[in-house]
């Protein structure tokens, strides 16, 4: 340290004095002089908390202005880093005469080994307060639509999955409807004669299960032997529509079909009419006016009947959840995940939609009647038959893959049922993940952890751009985990 042209001091000569000062609480040393970086290296062994030095020789005017501005800000209560930043910013006014003046002062962190400072209790309490506020709003249901929209957005960005080759869809299209005589159809989308011919051609290739997703409440003529025999077979599942009471009796099933081959076709939607849940089973209606009595859904009946041929049974476990093979289907509650006081009656699970489009093989009635099927397409597979004709299938469903822009990309009920069947058999046979939710205490801990992370970043980082970068990085990690 040069005092003048003839006198100087070395760090060795100052060592004892500096050590005494450090022991008495010295935390900051300012060397407002030349060769500051060289001094900083020599001061490492003394463990002074922080040091302000100059990178280069500094003119007196710059040194005096910096010290004045820094001490004023620091004494006014600003943190060391903010006071340093303000002093350097004010040096920019001198740079027309002294270029790079604001670049010369720098803080040197000299402590190389130290005990990590404990987390400020204010950080933990602030994180807890933020968590309690967010969790309280969540429990009141104010964020339900936002959370459901976030769920949809995450669903849409998943990678494409392979086609599920275990399912074949047979669609009754508008062209198929028009190709049949009106007097044969009698107001239905497909006549008994046509359906009997289709069943006969399908059975040639030995499908494992045939699911008929078409309402039929009348008896079948004995002349149609294929359909009559199939209805009582363990390879056949059909639907009826559940009702509530005399004013809404639903749609009754065909009288010849045994109860174990019947299912309900009901689909549940959320408040925004989007399908995110799958209904597996529910208690049958007790009102005598309601003729549709099955307690299993169409997708559940079809999937479990298919799995029975693999030797896999469905049972209720001790927690009152469906256990199919070794896979547990955890039932939703009225406040599960992002939901708030939903109707959780029956056994419901989140629907893990498949992302491929199309995700299954599709044919039409005319394809079958024109002998365009092969054994490779049908043998040991699930065949789902349903109407997609606009004139008979007015119900179109919104899914997480429907965009927020009109026109909506809606899905037919037959394709929705195929997704639900695929979810069950893929989870059991392929170990494809089922969607699940954290318990409420887990959600609270999750929120609290990220609140504390945000508070820690704000507490530790004082430079604006470093703060922005770290918050962006934390957000990217959170989004990736989700």
Q: Specify the overall morphology.
A: elongated
Number of helices: 16
Fraction of helical residues = 25-40%
Say how many strands there are.
16
State which percent range the strand residues make up.
Answer: 5-15%
Instruction: State the low-pLDDT regions, or none.
Output: none
Mean pLDDT: 87
Distance between the termini: 57 Å
Q: Tell me the major beta sheet.
A: 6 strands, parallel
Give the strand line-up of the largest sheet. Answer: 7-6-5-14-4-13
Structural class: alpha/beta
What Rg, in angstroms, do the CA atoms define?
36 Å
Mind explaining what this structure looks like?
With 482 residues, the chain is an alpha/beta fold. The protein is built from 16 helices and 16 strands. A 6-stranded parallel beta sheet has the order 7-6-5-14-4-13. Strands 1-2-3 form a 3-stranded mixed beta sheet, with helices on both faces. It has a 3-stranded antiparallel beta sheet with strand order 9-10-11, with no helix packed on it. Strand 10 and strand 11 form a beta hairpin. Helix 3 packs antiparallel against helix 4, helix 9 crosses helix 10 and helix 15 runs antiparallel to helix 16. The two termini are 57 Å apart.
């Amino acid at each position: 340290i040069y005092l003048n042209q003839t006198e100087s001091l070395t760090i060795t000569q100052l060592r004892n004095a500096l050590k005494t000062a450090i022991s008495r609480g010295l935390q900051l040393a300012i060397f407002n002089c030349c060769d500051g970086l060289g001094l900083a290296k020599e001061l490492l062994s003394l463990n002074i908390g922080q040091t302000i030095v100059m990178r280069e020789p500094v003119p007196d005017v710059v040194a005096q202005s910096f010290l004045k501005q820094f001490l004023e800000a620091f004494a006014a209560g600003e943190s060391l880093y903010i006071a340093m930043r303000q002093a350097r910013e004010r040096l920019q006014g001198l740079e027309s005469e002294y270029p790079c003046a604001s670049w010369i002062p720098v803080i040197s962190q000299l402590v190389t080994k130290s005990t990590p400072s404990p987390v400020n209790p204010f950080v933990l309490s602030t994180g807890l307060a933020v968590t309690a506020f967010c969790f309280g709003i969540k429990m009141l249901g104010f964020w339900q639509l936002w959370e459901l929209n976030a769920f949809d957005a995450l669903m849409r960005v998943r990678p494409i999955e392979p086609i599920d080759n275990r399912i074949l869809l047979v669609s009754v299209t508008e062209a198929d409807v028009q190709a049949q005589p009106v007097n044969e159809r009698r107001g239905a989308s497909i006549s008994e004669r046509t359906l009997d011919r289709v069943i006969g051609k399908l059975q040639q290739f030995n499908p494992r299960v045939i699911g008929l997703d078409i309402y039929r409440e009348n008896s079948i003529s004995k002349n149609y032997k294929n359909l009559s025999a199939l209805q009582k077979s363990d390879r056949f599942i059909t639907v009826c529509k559940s009702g509530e009471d005399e004013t809404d009796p639903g749609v009754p099933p065909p009288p010849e079909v045994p109860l174990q081959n019947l299912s309900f076709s009901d689909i549940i939607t959320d408040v925004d009419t989007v399908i995110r849940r799958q209904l597996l089973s529910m208690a049958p209606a007790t009102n005598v006016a309601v003729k549709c009595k099955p307690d299993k859904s169409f997708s559940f009946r079809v999937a479990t009947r298919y799995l029975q041929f693999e030797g896999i049974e469905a049972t209720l476990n001790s927690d009152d959840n469906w256990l199919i093979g070794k896979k547990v289907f955890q039932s939703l509650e009225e406040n599960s995940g992002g939901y708030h006081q939903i109707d959780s009656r029956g056994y419901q699970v989140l629907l893990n939609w498949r992302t491929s489009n199309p995700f299954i093989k599709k044919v039409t009635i005319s394809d079958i009647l024109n002998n365009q099927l092969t054994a490779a397409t049908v043998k040991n597979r699930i065949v789902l038959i349903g109407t997609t004709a606009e004139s008979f299938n007015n119900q179109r469903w919104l899914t997480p893959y429907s965009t927020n822009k009109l026109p909506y990309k809606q899905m037919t009920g037959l394709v929705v049922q195929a997704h639900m069947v695929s979810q069950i058999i893929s989870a059991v046979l392929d170990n494809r993940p089922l969607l699940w939710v954290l318990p409420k205490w887990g959600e609270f801990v999750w929120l609290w952890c990220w609140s504390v992370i945000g508070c820690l970043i704000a507490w530790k980082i004082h430079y604006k751009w470093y703060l922005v970068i770290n918050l962006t990085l934390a957000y990217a990690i959170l989004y990736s985990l989700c």
